[in-house]
Specification:
Length: 338
C-alpha cells in the first residue's frame, strides 16, 4: 500500500466522516494510481467496515503504508487518535536518517491555524508544495469545497500526488509492525465519560464507544454496570443494554441512575425491545432508539458521546474547586449592598 491518510474528523459528533476528506482521499488515490500503476493505493478510516476492530485494522494499515499523509488542522494535534496514528507510523522510521524519515511523512494543511497561533509543523507542511496564497490563507479543505478554487485545488492534488509517488518509488519502506496505537486523551478539568455494558456480548461495543470518545478528544473509561450508579453521580455516562437482557436485570441496573445517563438497547433484528425501553422511560433516563445492526451502531457511537456530555452539562451537579463557595444569589446581593 502506498499511503495512509490521517485526519481529525471535523464532523464532530455527527456520526459521519467529513465528506471533503473522502473527496480528497479519492482524488489523491486516483492520482497516485495513475502515476504508480498500483492497484492498492491508500487507506483512511472511511474504509473501515461497520463493526470492524478499529484499532487492529488501523495498526495493520499503518504497518503497510510507505507514506503517511496527515491532514493538519487546529484540531489535529489535540486529537488523541490522530496523534497516536502519527506516532505509530513514526515508530517505523527510527532506523532511517532524519532527512530520509521526513520524506515518508507528507503533511497537508487541511485547515489553517488562526492568525494569532503558530506551529512549526504547519510551516513545514506548507514547505512541502510551496506557499501559494490560496493554500496559505484557506487550507486545502476550503479549496476542495469551493468551485472558485478548483484550479488551485487540482494543482495541489497533483503536487501531493507527485511527492507521494516519488517517495514510494525512490524510498521504499518495507512493511513492518508499528508501535501500538495508544490514544491519550487530554482530560484537563473535564469530567471523564464512563461507559458500561449490561450483557456479556457487548464488550466490543463498549470499547467502540470509548474509541469514539477518544477520537473526539473526550477522556473515557469502561466501568462494570454494577458500579455505574455510584460513579455516574458526578460524571457523564453511557449504558449499553443487551436486547436479550431480562426486564428484571435491566430494572435493577437502572434503578437510581441519574437522568443524564444515556441508555442504548443493542438488539438483534428479531428481538422485542418494547419492555426494556418502557423500563428506561419509567426510570427517566435519556435514551436513543434501539440499534440492530453494526452500521447503525457505528453511526450512533459518536452521538452517544456528545449526547452524554450535553445531558451532564445540562442536568449534572455544579462542580467547584475545593474552598470555592457555591454560586449564591444572596451573596451577590449582599456584596452589592456592601
Amino acid at each position: 500500500m502506498i499511503f495512509f491518510l490521517s485526519h481529525a474528523n471535523t464532523a464532530r459528533g455527527s456520526g459521519t466522516l467529513d465528506p471533503w476528506v473522502k473527496r480528497f482521499f479519492d482524488d489523491l488515490s486516483d492520482g497516485v494510481r495513475a502515476r504508480t500503476g498500483a492497484d492498492e493505493t491508500g487507506f483512511y478510516d472511511g474504509l473501515l467496515e461497520p463493526g470492524a476492530d478499529r484499532r487492529a485494522r488501523l495498526t495493520d494499515e499503518i504497518g503497510r503504508a510507505r507514506v503517511f499523509v496527515p491532514l493538519y488542522s487546529p484540531q489535529y494535534f489535540g486529537n488523541s487518535w490522530a496523534a497516536a496514528e502519527l506516532d505509530s507510523f513514526r515508530s517505523r522510521l527510527r532506523g532511517l536518517g532524519r532527512a530520509e524519515a521526513a520524506r515518508h511523512v507528507v503533511p497537508v494543511v487541511w485547515t489553517p491555524l488562526p492568525p494569532w497561533e503558530n506551529r512549526r509543523e504547519f510551516d513545514e507542511a506548507f514547505a512541502v508544495v510551496g506557499k501559494s496564497v490560496e493554500y496559505t490563507e484557506n487550507g486545502l479543505r476550503a479549496l476542495c469545497m469551493l468551485s472558485v478554487y478548483r484550479d488551485a485545488y487540482r494543482d495541489l492534488v497533483a503536487a501531493f500526488t507527485d511527492r507521494i509517488a516519488g517517495v514510494a518509488r525512490d524510498s521504499v519502506l518495507e512493511p513492518s509492525p508499528p508501535a501500538p496505537l495508544v490514544p491519550r486523551p487530554a482530560g484537563g478539568g473535564e469530567p471523564a465519560l464512563i461507559v458500561s455494558a449490561l450483557g456479556a456480548g457487548l464488550g466490543a461495543r463498549r470499547d467502540q464507544v470509548i474509541e469514539a470518545a477518544e477520537r473526539l478528544g473526550v477522556p473515557a473509561q469502561p466501568l462494570p454496570a454494577e458500579q455505574l450508579r455510584r460513579q455516574a453521580a458526578r460524571r457523564p455516562g453511557v449504558l449499553l443494554i443487551d436486547g436479550d437482557a431480562t426486564p428484571e436485570t435491566v430494572r435493577d441496573t437502572v434503578a437510581g441512575l441519574p437522568r443524564w445517563v444515556i441508555a442504548l438497547v443493542v438488539a438483534s433484528a428479531s428481538a422485542a425491545v418494547g419492555p426494556l425501553t418502557g423500563i428506561l422511560r419509567t426510570a427517566g433516563l435519556h435514551q436513543v432508539s434501539p440499534v440492530r445492526t453494526a452500521a447503525e451502531f457505528d453511526r450512533n457511537a459518536p452521538l452517544l458521546v456528545t449526547e452524554a456530555r450535553k445531558q451532564y452539562l445540562r442536568h449534572g451537579p455544579v462542580v467547584t474547586a475545593p474552598g470555592t463557595p457555591r454560586p449564591s444569589l444572596r451573596r451577590t446581593s449582599d456584596d452589592k449592598r456592601g
